[in-house]
Structure formats: structure tokens, C-alpha cells
Amino acid sequence: MRSACLKICICALFIVTGLKARAQETQKMYLSGTGSDHTVNWQFFCTQGRNSGKWTTIPVPSNWEFQGFGKYNYGLAKDSLRGKEQGLYKYEFTVPSAWQGKAINIVFDGSMTDTEVKINGKSAGAIHQGSFYRFKYDISSLLNYGKTNLLEVTVSKHSANPSVNAAERKGDFWIFGGIFRPVFLEAMPQAHINYYAVDAKANGNLKAALKLSSAKAGTVTGQIYAVNGQKIGAAFTAKVNVGDTLVNIATRIASPKLWTPESPNLYNVVFTLNQNGKATHTVKQRFGFRTVELRVHDGIYVNNVKIKFKGVNRHSFWPTTGRALNKNISIGDVKMLKDMNMNAVRMSHYPPDDHFLDACDSLGLFVLDELTGWHQHYDTQVGSKLVKELIEKDINHPSIVVWDNGNEGGFNFDLDHLFDKLDIQKRPLIHPWGIFRGTNTQHYINYDYGTGTAMHGHDIFFPTEFLHGLYDGGAGAGLDDFWDQMWHTPLSAGGFIWDFADEAVVRTDKNGELDTDLDHGPDGIVGPYHEKEGSYYTIKEVWSPVYVEPTEITPAFNGAIRLENRYFYTNLKQCSFSYKLVKLDNPYHKAGVASKTGVITSPDVIPGQYGNLQLQLPAGWQSFDVLYVTAIDPSKNEIFTWSFPISSHDKITAGMITKTGGSKASIEETDSLFKVKANNGLELEFNRNSGIMVKVKNAKGNIPFNNGPVLIEGQDQSGFQKLNHRYEGDNLVIEAQFPPKKTEPMLKWVIYPSGWVQLDVRYWPIGEEATMLGVNFSFPEKEVKGVTYLGDGPYRVWKNRMKGTSLDVWNKVYNNTITGEGNVVYPEFKGYYSNLYWMKLETTSQPITIVCNNQDVFMRLFTPANPKKVYNVAPAFPSGDISFMHGITPIGTKSQKPEYLGASGQKNKYFNYDKNIEDSLPLTLYFDFSGK
């Protein structure tokens, strides 16, 4: 807890208007800090819980739980709302004598939840109810000008209004107490503009509604400016009569630069109230020209372009400060969303900080702004006030394109008309989870519903939650299937993933433990401190506005890569492209000249059309191992980098293994074993009744890699007849014999004079589908330090989350991470990895190198530990420890099994009625047990 002597902190911020700064501008004086990174200590008294019953200090803004006070509460009504946990605040401040005669408001940007305000012992106004909304009081008559003033605030964590508790204190999210957003004074002339709403359409029409206080006869003038200060168009004027409280003003400019997430063009408009021939009060508002339309049975249009929303739900949250945030966090969040190629964000389940919306305006994201409600809603009396506060604060942000009235049944239908009445722009209104006004926003729909519903219905399909990212499930898993269907379905307007970041609090009462309230909080694409999980990169590729078709790089490759422009407003000629050719190291050879790079001419492809990237590759490009192609957006940010294998598995394998260079291996037979001695002291033992390798030893000692290959569960090895051995030249061959048409037609070991060991396995699945396909080996997990491998990485994959990886040599240190639970290390170590070429297992004793000479083989490293409550996010893994697989498992979400998430969530399908050996699944592995 912080303690400090009481200090007077006054900060004046003058709103710059583009005109010369004069006294008629609104003056702002912060009483608190400006955010969680800049706070001011106030006196504080907590009535219950930790550190209660004594006066001390607390930083403002903050949530008091993180400062060591009160009790942590997750919502869902599991904690009694009858408690009297309150925070009492005091703060002394001085206002300038020159402010006397002005209209002065005290403004609270957010306080949880019922908030009573007194100035110099007198009430500032009615107690405010509702946590996430800006409210203000006119305190002009309560102040001592040029002298010390006392601010007293009483904040009740739970509301006296049952509907407020129902809507926001019983929600499925953490609930906190305290003044968590800034508190400031604003001073204006008595005759002033106290509110202004702007509607700027894509055709250049601008209209604004201005509310006035104490107005006399005069005018209001307006002037539009570019962000660099240049005047745009002529000034425009509206007449003001004595006593007018509302003035409408309008103008039109020719060919404005439009606001979109792809080109977030902004302007400023300055409004000046003129009284008695003098400028009395001046305000400035940033805005963008854009038009939003919901066309029933068609789609949501912005600037006459039908939009597919690629979005995520975002809580206002940080693990060490709760709902108290700052501008840097907001900008960082928006940049991460943009980096994932998202174009939209939904405010779940309350309006955000101004600085977050500012970042969405300037960096470019569509926003769904939401009135709080989670299965229950505000009553009409308090809800009407909160709708007004929501819209008045946020109305002018061009990023906001849709309003949400509550969430998941938390809709008060009596409030719907207020959104229509109060919003000058008449943006669409939705009921998230509901079917309302031509939109179907149902949550967690299955991939394929029946006729007349979801993407097969007649309403605009717009799920505001559709993949639940619990632990490592959902989010990216299933997205490729869903997005392909959404992209090609005209009535689909896209959708929103749940959710952006794990909501884990640092428990100051539990030695800094990260607490997600078990399975309620770990739903993020990123961790609590925004650590990137595997789904982050899957989303980045699936939602790339440059869609690259699957391409095989063969020796005859002519440099053309076909792509689709999935932007909505941007021609691909505005982007830039480059390539990189890379030679890769392996454990036995350094690549030498590692890479060559080049620029690719950007194709002229308009949104929704196809074209080609034409690479001009240098002579000898076929000698490289991998081709990387990178797309950069017009703002110079990476869209994605795709990797294309050039070298085949045959080529990589041939460059690594050595078959000659020693004497041929010897073999000894016992009743149950073949015992082999080979080059460099290598000793191997094979079970004669199964063909399984049961022991490996070299001159340095035992290597506990054994008990394989064992076909994965569900496979039939009962057809094994016997194990034979023979020499082919100097190569020792040990081969199993199976009767025709059995599941496993081949199991063969070859021990070369060099000491390399080759394994060939062929098999068929039983039936037409299989959960997992491949072979297992055993190795003690406690002896593993890490792995270096050539394959896709660095993140693991699931059957329904294959995208987002890159082909490279990856080095991974062992960790036992459970995604989203506790102190995590990303990328996770355990799991499935696609497109294996070779791996070098680093152990506490000596390394093992394994080379795979087949395409499309997965490396499996051990079995990830399960979270405490698994739902559908703990897929099956094979027995054994290390596997080489043709088929792996998908992963589900909190509410959905993987088979309901699309085709890639189904079991592995394989059809082979005749069981021809040529159609069996092949696996060829080479082992280096030399310990080098």
C-alpha cells in the first residue's frame, strides 16, 4: 500500500482549437492522475475486508483491491451483494480565483459503483449508479475560489439498485471497487457549448447538434480542419436566439478522405459560440467522414461497402490494475488487434476508456460499443440515464459503427428507442446473442445449423461471440473452417471471437498469485500480460487481407503465386511484397550463404478480386531450402509471412544421414531378442515377438529411447508373425512378417555400417476414420531439456488449428505450460508439431537426432497436462512419449466439441478398401544414437 503526505495536485490542460488559445476555451484541471501510469494519492478509508477501518492513502485512479483493500470478487452472483464494502475518499484542491463566474463541472470518467460526491461538505447532486459511465455535476456554487476546497467521495462496491447489481455486478467477469478512471474539473464561460454531436457522411455532408447554456442572441460558427491544421472548406454558421438550448449546424465539403479501418482519415471541426460580436466559447472535435448502413436481408455497409467484421471481444483489464488503464495500454491493445489482421473489436461488456476509442479512431478499428448487461439488465429509470451517458461520451468516435443494448439476454427493450433518439448518426442497434432488427447475433453456433438459421437463414448473420478461447481451445481452432464459410456466405457479416486476453488478477492477498477464478478468466488469445498464444498467429494468417492460395514449389515453379484481395477498400498495389530464399542449418552442416532477398512488384488487384504475385527469383533458387514471402500493408506493418518448402524431405534427409563409413553390424539371437552391435559402440535390442526396439546403448551409456514403434491406440498389431533378419550388402536388415491384408504390412529396421538406423513402417487405419494415426516411442520426460527441429513452428498445432506457423529450424526449451493457467511460458513445449523434417532431442545425458523422410508427418512431444476443468479443450493424446503421426486430434471450445466446429474438427478420414500396400500410410525415420 502506498502512503504519502497529502499534496495539492493541479494540472491544467487547455484544449487546442486551431485558433489562438484564449480564455473562451474549456479549461480542464485533473484532480486525479490521468491513468494507471500516472496517479495522485487521495486520502482513503475502506469499510470492510483487508486494511479496512483506518484512514490512509490510495492512488487515484485505481481499483482498491489491487492496492491491498477489501475483497476480490468474481461476478456470477457467487458473493453476497448485501455487504457494505465501501471506499471513502477525501482530496483537497484549489481552483484559481479567475474561475469565479464560470460554469464549472466535476467529471468522473468511471467509478465502481454507487458514487456520492460532496464539495465542502455539500452534496454535488444525486448519487450516481452504474460503474462504467462518465457523469458530472455542476459545482460552480459550491466552490471556494482561490482557496482550498474539500472533495469527499463515497463509493459503494455494490449498488443500492438491484438492477445495477444484476446487470454488472453479477456478470461473468471480475468486479472491483473504486474510482478507476480520471476525475477532473472543466471550466467554461457561463454562455457556452456544453455538448456537441457530429454526423459526417461519406458524401461530405456534415451536420452537428450543439447544446447551449445561458445563450444570448448571436451565432455559432464552424470550421473543418485537416489534422495538420489546414482549413478544409469555408466556415459555416447557424443563428442563435436568446434562450436557445439547441442549435443545428451543417455544411458540405467536396471529396473528403473517408474513415475506414484501412485508411482511418480524421478531421477536426471547431465550433465557436459568438455572443455580442465576440467569440465566447470554442470547442474542437475530432471526427471522420463515413456512412454506416444496415441493409436488411443483405449486410452491414460502411461507405457503401459490405463488411465482414473480423473481431474480438475486449475487456478493459490489466492484471496489476484491474479496470484502471492508461493510454499506452490502449494503444498497445489496438496495435495487437491490428497485427492479428482484425478490423473490429466489441466492447465487452461496457463502454471503454476514451483513450481506447481514440486509438481505434486513429489506428483504424470498427467498434461495437455496449451498454452493460449479462443475462440481466438495468431497470428503465437508471438504464435511461446510463444510455444517455454512454452515447453523449462516445457519440463522435468514427470507429463506433454499432451500439449494443446489453448482452446475452441482458436487454431492456424499453431502452432501444433511446439509442435511436440520442444518436445523431442513427447507427445500427443490436442485441448481442439475440435476433433483432434484421440481425442474428447468436453466440457459439455450430458450424452447420439447419435450414433457415445462422448462415442458412435470412437475417444478417453476425455472431458477437462464436469461438470461445478457453485455455488453448477455440479462438484459432476452428476459425479456418468458420471463416471460409463466413467469407463466402453473402448474409454473413463476420463475427467476434471470445476473447482478447486472459483475465487474471495479481492477488495482492496471495503473494502475487495470478488468479483467473479457475476456468472463468483464461479465455484469451493472449495471456494476462499479453503473451501471445498459438491462436494469435493462426488468426493472423486466417484473417490476412491478402489470401495466398496453397502453392507447391517444384523445380518447374515459374514464380507465380495466386492470391485474393480480401481487403474492403485497399488495392494490393498499395501494399508491398518481398521474398527471402534461405538455406537452413542442420546438426551436421552449416548452411554457409544463408539467404537472398528480393522485392516483388505489387499486383494491381482491387478488393474481392484475384491476381498473381510474380516473383523474379535469381538463378539457382532451387538450391535453397525455404522461400518466404512477406506482405506489408500501406502503413508499413507486416500482414503475414508465408513459408514454402523448396527442398524435399528426400533432399534434406540425404544431406544429413551417412550410411557408409564403418563395419557392418553384428547380430545375436536369444529366445526373445535380436541383439545388435554396430559402429561406435552402438548396441540395440529388438523384441523377436513384436519387432519393437527395447534397448539402445552406446559407448557413453544407455539411451532410454525405446518401446517403439507401437501403433497408436485403436490399431491392430495382432497380425505379427515373426521377426527375420538378413544382410543386404553391409546393411543389416531386421524385418517383421505379417500375413496379407493385415493392418500393418511393413515393419523394417536397417542398421547401416555408419551406425545410422533406419525404420520403415507402413500401416492402414482400422475402418474409415481414426482419432489418431502414427507410432509411439517411450522416453522419460524428466530427462528432456529441449528440442531443436526443422518443421513448422514455433507453436504447436491441432487438427483444426494448422495455420499460423512457419517452416524453420526451431529451438524449444522444455516447459510444462498449461495454456492460460498459472505462470506460463510460450510457446508451449508439449504437443503436436506439423511438417517434421528432423529433430534433435536435447536430454540430460546425450542427444538423439531423428530424421523423417515423409511429408505431412507430425512430431508429438509428450502429453500436455490438463487444466483443472477441461470442458472440450483437453484432446486425446497417444500413449507413449514421443510420436510420429499422420493424424492428430482437434480441440474444442468451452461450449462446443471439436466435431461441431467444421470439417477439420472431425476425426481423420481414410478410405482404402483393397488394402494395397501402395495406399498404406508410410513412415521412414532415421536415428542417430551416437550422442553427437
Automatic annotation (TrEMBL):
Glycoside hydrolase family 2 immunoglobulin-like beta-sandwich domain span: 193-290
Keywords attached to this entry: Calcium, Glycosidase, Hydrolase, Signal
Domain annotation Glycoside hydrolase family 2 catalytic: ranges: 298-419
Catalysed reaction, written as an equation: Hydrolysis of terminal non-reducing beta-D-galactose residues in beta-D-galactosides
Signal peptide: 1-23
Domain of life: Bacteria
Cofactor(s) this protein cannot do without: Ca(2+)
Enzyme Commission code(s) on record: 3.2.1.23
InterPro entries in the cross-refs: Bact_Beta-galactosidase, Beta-gal/glucu_dom_sf, Gal_mutarotase_sf_dom, Galactose-bd-like_sf, GH, GH-type_carb-bd, Glyco_hydro_2, Glyco_hydro_2_cat
Domain Glycosyl hydrolases family 2 sugar binding: 56-189
One Pfam family hit: Glyco_hydro_2
GO MF, any single term: hydrolase activity
Quaternary structure and interacting proteins, as annotated: Monomer.
Family: Belongs to the glycosyl hydrolase 2 family.
Protein name: beta-galactosidase
